[in-house]
Amino acid sequence: MKTFPDGFLWGAAASAPQTEGSALVDGKSLTTWDKWFEMNPEKFDKQVGPKDTSNVYRQYAEDVQLMEDMKLNSYRTSISWARLLPDGKTLNQKAVDFYRNYFLSMIEKNVEPIINLFHFDMPWWLMEKGGWETRESVEAFGYYAKVAFEQFGDLVHRWTTFNEPIVHVECGYLFEFHYPAVVDFKRAVQVGYHTLMAHVEAVKQFRKGQHTGEIGIILNLTPVYGKSDAPEDLKAKEAADALNVKSFLDPVVLGHFPAELIQLVKENDLLPASEAGDKERIARATVDFLGVNYYQPKRVQAVSHPTVPAKMPNDLYGEYDWPEKKINPYRGWEIYPEALYDIAMRLKNEYGNIPWYVSENGMGVAEEERFMNDEGIIQDDYRIEFVHDHLTELHKAIEEGSNCFGYHMWTFADCWSWLNGYRNRYGFYRVDIENDFKRTPKKSSFWMKSVIQQNTID
Ligand code: BG6
């Protein structure tokens, strides 16, 4: 039996745009997702867009009751910037009321709300000015963060600024999965830089307002493994690590960029525009804790014929297809629980053993209704095995001193997955999108409840 520390956070994670629905009501303005769906609905799986995602705006009380039933003691979601401040300046009282009621209902059921400010949902008014490409976004985000802290600071004690900031950089400016779906390495780096400065501005506002509680950020610390220890493979690994892991991890925890990243952007003519004083601002804005999302590792090898200077990340490192990998065929992601141990030990050994928690981990599976039994309960043993194996690795790292204080599953109730719509399901609860968003527990929810009650896995 493996027992977790007292007070360990057990919970689940989600985001405003993927769960709230009611995207066009009660004063919320449009985001890039609302607009992109309006322009190109064919890009979205089965043409299911962001307008009516899992209906949490109306059904939150039911969900919170189900969280209590499952004995979750914490839950992370985000605030929609476009709902709280539809034009970036004017406070939407209906949004304030919704979020206050939502967070209060969690607190009443002993579920701690951990609240994130940005989960890929850029307001359209700001996108029209260039989104994260314009420096104006930094100040705009700082103002939004300040308002959020003032409106909800009495209810929320663990804040995070961004979810996986590297993802909107690469998906929006390299790989075409997010709006504006352009392919431009230099613009991507600028977007990443302004995102970091927006995070810095939010941390500044949090400290200035003397809010109680703690502030952090959620990073997908995708661990990088090289094909071999040959110097060319090691060089590729270092570049992948600098771009994908250290780019945000080093400035937010250590207060500065890693030397290898600075060299890489200089060598490849990718230096972003910055302002005097940024270096000191970054140094002053280190976080109290980290959330770490982990789904799959990154395996890389040397590139045989790179373009110099690099036009894309794959001029710096090539993907390596490890022949022994175990794969989740629905999402196409490798399943490798050992990486969670490696992340945990790296945070301990190289990042001052900063307090952290697993803020997302999970398994998306298509057509889960195939596994429904006669009582209508999906027998998701694959998910139970997935969580069990990851918790085993996590427990080992905690025993060895890594400062991990919780584990959150992606996600609580099936939610909308961006361009993938509702194809892959991740929840402890099934959501029937054709039948009033009805929630039904899956087998994994009962298994997880017993893990939580015993604070232990076999
Ligand atoms: C995480 C994101 O990277 O992965 C979530 O924070 C996302 O927003 C989740 O939904 C699962 O990925 P996907 O693409 O299958 O939805």
Class by SSE composition:
alpha/beta
Bound molecules: 6-O-phosphono-beta-D-glucopyranose
From the coordinates shown, what is the CATH architecture? Alpha-Beta Barrel
Number of domains: 1
Number of strands: 19
> Remind me, CATH topology?
TIM Barrel
Q: Supply the number of helical segments.
A: 15
Oligomeric grouping of the chains: single chain
What CATH first level would be assigned? Alpha Beta
Main pleated-sheet profile: 8 strands, parallel, barrel
Q: Strand order across the biggest sheet?
A: 2-3-4-5-6-8-13-15
Task: Sum this structure up briefly.
The chain is an alpha/beta fold. 40% of the residues lie in helices and 16% in strands.
Keywords:
458 residues; 15 helices; 16% strand; alpha/beta; binds 6-O-phosphono-beta-D-glucopyranose; three-stranded mixed β-sheet; TIM Barrel; globular; 19 strands
Structural summary, described in words:
By secondary structure, the protein is an alpha/beta fold. The model has no long low-confidence stretch (mean pLDDT 98). The strands form six sheets. It has an eight-stranded parallel barrel, surrounded by five helices. The N and C termini lie close together (5 Å). α3 packs parallel to α5 (93-108). It contains 15 helices and 19 strands. 6-O-phosphono-beta-D-glucopyranose binds at residues 15, 18, 163-164, 167, 220, 293, 331, 360, 364, 410, 417-418, 420, 424.
Could you outline the blueprint of secondary structure elements for this entry?
Blueprint: E1 2-3, E2 9-13, H1 16-19, H2 32-39, H3 56-70, E3 74-78, H4 81-84, H5 93-108, E4 112-118, H6 124-127, H7 136-152, E5 158-163, H8 165-173, H9 185-208, E6 214-219, E7 224-226, H10 231-254, H11 259-267, H12 278-284, E8 289-293, E9 298-301, E10 318-319, E11 327-328, E12 333-334, H13 338-350, E13 356-360, E14 365-366, H14 381-399, E15 404-410, E16 424-425, E17 429-432, E18 438-441, H15 443-454, E19 456-457
Parallel strand pairs: 2-3, 2-15, 3-4, 4-5, 5-6, 6-8, 7-9, 8-13, 13-15
Antiparallel strand pairs: 1-19, 9-10, 11-12, 14-16, 17-18
Helix pairs in contact: 3-5, 7-9, 8-9, 9-12, 13-14
Bound molecules: 6-O-phosphono-beta-D-glucopyranose.
